[in-house]
Amino acid sequence: MTEQTLMERxxxxxxxxxxxxxxxxxxxxQIVDIEPQRAVIKIPYSKDMAxxxxxxxxxxGLVTTALDSASGLAVFAALxxxxxxxxxxxxxxxxxxxxxxxxxxxxxxxxxxxxxxxFVRGVAYHEDRDDPIANCTATFMVTARAGATAEDxxxxxxxxxxx
Amino acid sequence: xxxxxxxxRAKAEDDFSILSSGIPYMNTMGIYVWEDQxxxxxxxxxxxxxxxxPRLPALHGGTIxxxxxxxxxxxxxxxQDTENLPKPINVTIEYLRSGKIxxxxxxxxxxxxxxxxxxxxxxxxxxxxxxxVAAMHGHFLMT
Lengths: 163, 143
Known about the structure:
The structure holds two protein chains of two kinds. Chain A is 26% helix and 31% strand. Chain A has helices spanning 3-15, 22-27, 60-76, 150-155; strands at 30-35, 38-43, 85-94, 104-113, 117-125, 134-142. Chain B contains three helices and eight strands, in the order H-H-E-E-E-E-H-E-E-E-E. Chain B has a six-stranded antiparallel β-sheet. In chain B, strands 3-4 form a two-stranded antiparallel ribbon. Chains A and B meet through helix 2, helix 3 and strand 3 of A and helix 2, strand 3, strand 4, helix 3 and strand 5 of B. Strand 3 (85-94) of chain A pairs antiparallel with strand 5 of chain B, so a sheet runs across the interface.
């Protein structure tokens, strides 16, 4: 399968709302861009996700969710075929508070894949990736499952199995 | 009431369940604080909207991270003497098992409380505390 075809399949599959995970649908998570090894997602601002009602600044948990989602997608975009993946660990450095009322973008790059483990770095930001809210490094296990269809594997992208 | 006033009230009344009224994220995610056998416990209620993998099904990893971070902040608000809200500097989340769509309980321990920075460890589990779903450690700024 060529990279272009793989990208097209990922985008086609994930662009259908029914193929988004229930949590992604709940957050209104959108795929902004996807290319080999890289992905960008967006989560709109919601005051319901603030960590402090007085300031409206988003809770770190939402930044974690954005980075985990973008990182998983970048791993899919780096693999030669559809595989099931599971987050092994995720480290986040919080560089500055998110600005209220602004959507969060998360960019991730899967810079190394091996047979069992994939390595990712990512950045969360508002408008400018060079002015980040948070940085992350993550590792994923590749856990292909016999009998699953390609679309099944693509749907299962988070904390998938025991690793 | 602002969050810092809520923390003061929670300490005065020894009731940390009131914190969620100042943290919209907790209400939206169904996260609440209670005391289990004398230990502060932070729980995220089972809810289909937290599903990250509908095929298993399993909780979204980001929601697990959000619970762990909340548990750390609540524990620090409980333990600390300073008059500031803890701010996360960095966190590392280790995913150990897939989280089922069931209640997820977290318990945090302040490993070191420095003057400016605190180190916190958190684990979370579902039916059996001996089978953790995820663990987190992180640094929080206290000033």
